[in-house]
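Quick start: read one record
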Amino acid sequence: MNAKSLRHARLAVGGIVTAVVTTLTGVVAAGPAQADLLPYVAWSSYLDGWTDEYIPSSDNDCVAGRDTCLKGTLKELRKIADSTASSCSHDAIFALAYLRMTETYGRSRDIPGFYQDVPFANHQDAVFARYYTDAYYAYKRGDLSKVPQAWRYAFDASKARKVNATGDLMLGMNAHINRDLAFVVAAVGTVAPDGSSRKPDFDKVEEWLYLATAPLMAEFAARLDESMDDSQDPLSLANWSTFQAISGWRENAWRNAERLIMAPDAAARAQVAAQIETSANTIAQTFLLTNSYGLLSTTTTRDNYCATHWMAPAPAAYPYS
């Protein structure tokens, strides 16, 4: 599939994602082998006192939501992004996306008044990142029992080089938003101590998610896969449709978190959790069908491009830079 066809495929994917959301919300060739040899250690395993619960008095900077927590989060995400990019692993697409979005979060929190509760936002950001990094490291060491199925779809596809770059991105976002986010929000809480909802800060994230999409696509094209170039999409329709789907996913995750919290007993909560898992798995299967390279396609062009461009600088500024 050529670059122009892939750009058109991204437009189609946006429509497919939106349809799926509408249906479900009602409730260098040798490089990758080198990456597999890295000593993967989940960062939360060596953070004393880690808990998903927000405790401002905790000695753990991330549990207390101190500003220094973000440095640790970014260090962990940068380690994954750098190792996957340098080896041209197809995991690099989502890893780079996560790093850049978290960096953008860091700049947004430094804007006075952007969030109502910055320490809580810092804590939630770290917990959310842990769900990704723990799944990533568990998969790399072969501990598949600790890898949610939605993440297994994403990591399996990347390892097999089965889907295009758009597919790698969407599979990762699906696992992290449609699967992880509800559990994260339920764990950290939806209500502040004064009884006010934390939803306004949750929604503020979407302001920079949209603004960061175009720079991210440009960096993908510059460093990892030139087919991600959206220069022939001057109205950014693909970016807009993708963002609309993500916005719907995030809203659904919040509602699912409320369902988890309001479940009257363990059995009811388990049922809600199973529905969340099933929904994310169904969406992943859709992306696997719509973004596979096909029997007559190879990833040689993509991989060779990455091998010579992965160190290229980001061509566009990200929000609040």
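Residues 1-38 have pLDDT under 50 and may be disordered.
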